[in-house]
Write a structure and sequence with these properties.
Pfam families: ABC_tran
Strand order of the largest sheet: 5-6-7-3-8-9
Number of domains: 2
Largest sheet: 6 strands, mixed
InterPro entries: AAA+_ATPase, ABC_transporter-like_ATP-bd, ABC_transporter_ATP-binding, P-loop_NTPase
GO molecular function: ATP binding; ATP hydrolysis activity
Order of helices and strands: EEEHEHEHHHEHEHEEHEEEHEH
Radius of gyration: 24 Å
Main location: membrane
Number of helices: 10
CATH superfamily of the largest domain: P-loop containing nucleotide triphosphate hydrolases
Distance between the termini: 36 Å
Structural class: alpha/beta
Bound molecules: adenosine-5'-triphosphate
Organism: Allocatelliglobosispora scoriae
Number of strands: 13
Strand content: 25-35%
Length: 324
């Protein structure tokens, strides 16, 4: 079942910029420049892109906060801005910088307010809260006023608040930003569990590469307001020619140049050489060559790092065939 359907979505902002000492000129910023996207029920989608790519703007349009300049979009069958109230009952939103919690009251009271706002039957509310308490370890700070919570504790509270009415789709904008390692793990573990159950669709923007590796089965990358990749992480690696590294330890320094298709020398430190292999190169061919030179002592293969592939992707201009 399709829960998000987006066709030709655009958002332009008119900004005033100072020209010279006194004059101000209007300039149009195209934040989202024609996005098509279909998301099915239960998908866990990573929505990525460099700073200013248009991620938050897209999320704001999907959640009914911003009116699109043009294009069509439905979320859970609703058009977000005109049907914002109906949509609010079906979605959950966690925007890292904004809080849905009541600052001066204990966390528990915010959850009680949510129950009334969304008219959740008491039994359903209690069951949802019990699950969040267990999975997010809330009990130690349920009675603490929100303003006294640490960032990680608050984020766990925000996630709970967004989920208590059992939304079909949850939108998360940078949910792990600024959290310590343990809180990050708690949040990721919770989202992974939510994803595994398969009935909640999750759309997540993040700059944290560990979030992507741990959670996102599908990755949509945008740049300059356009989709430049839509697929799995392994497709991303294959498409952007991410390179494995083979580090070899030799008995004596190499005197012959090793020339193989798709293999290049990345660094040489005495008898230790790091080779970079593109997606089509075979490790076996490199090993066979080094053995034939009679010099190989030890070898380690490092799989492509996600940092490598994402930085290559962000550096390749949108619409142009990526580097291989
Ligand atoms: N209210 C606004 N008025 C004017 N320009 C805006 C407004 N909101 C966003 N923009 C511009 O639209 C573009 C996309 O911004 P957006 O916040 O969607 O990017 P992002 O991908 O979420 O970036 P980041 O990773 O830094 O959060 C940027 O050039 C930004 O300056």
């Amino acid at each position: 079942m399709t829960v998000i359907q987006v066709r030709g979505l655009r958002k332009e902002f008119v900004v005033k910029a100072k020209v010279g000492r006194f004059r101000r000129e209007s300039r149009v910023v195209e934040a989202v420049a024609g996005i098509d996207l279909t998301v099915e029920r239960g998908e866990l989608l990573g929505y990525l892109g460099p700073n200013g790519a248009g991620k938050s703007t897209t999320l704001k349009m999907l959640t009914g906060v911003l009116m699109p300049s043009s294009g069509e979009l439905t979320v859970c069958g609703f058009t977000p801005v005109p049907q914002r109230r109906k949509l609010a009952a079906r979605i959950g939103v966690v925007f890292g910088q904004r809080s849905a919690l009541l600052w001066d009251l204990p966390l528990r009271d915010s959850f009680e307010v949510m129950r009334h706002v969304f008219r959740v039957p008491p039994g359903d509310h209690a069951a949802a809260l019990r699950r969040c308490r267990e999975l997010l370890d809330l009990d130690a700070f349920l009675d603490t006023p929100v303003r006294q919570l640490s960032l990680g504790q608050r984020m766990r509270g925000e996630l709970t608040a967004a989920l208590l009415h059992s939304p079909e789709v949850i939108f998360l904008d940078e949910p792990t930003i600024g959290l310590d390692v343990l809180s990050k793990q708690a949040v990721r573990g919770f989202l992974a569990e939510l994803g595994r159950r398969g009935d909640t669709t999750i759309v997540l923007t993040t700059h944290d590469l560990a979030d992507i590796e741990r959670l996102c089965r599908r990755i949509v990358v945008i740049d300059h307001g356009r989709v430049v990749h839509d697929g799995s992480l392994s497709e991303l690696h294959a498409r952007y020619g991410s390179r494995r590294r083979v580090v070899v330890e030799l008995d004596t320094p190499l005197t012959t140049v090793v020339e193989l298709p798709g293999v290049s020398v990345e660094s040489v430190e005495g008898t230790r050489i790091t080779f970079a292999l593109d997606a089509h190169a075979e490790v076996g061919d490199l090993v066979a060559r080094l053995v034939s030179l009679g010099t190989l002592r030890d070898l380690a293969i490092a799989e492509p790092a996600i940092e490598d592939v994402i930085s290559r992707l962000y550096l390749s201009p949108a619409g142009v065939e990526p580097v291989t």
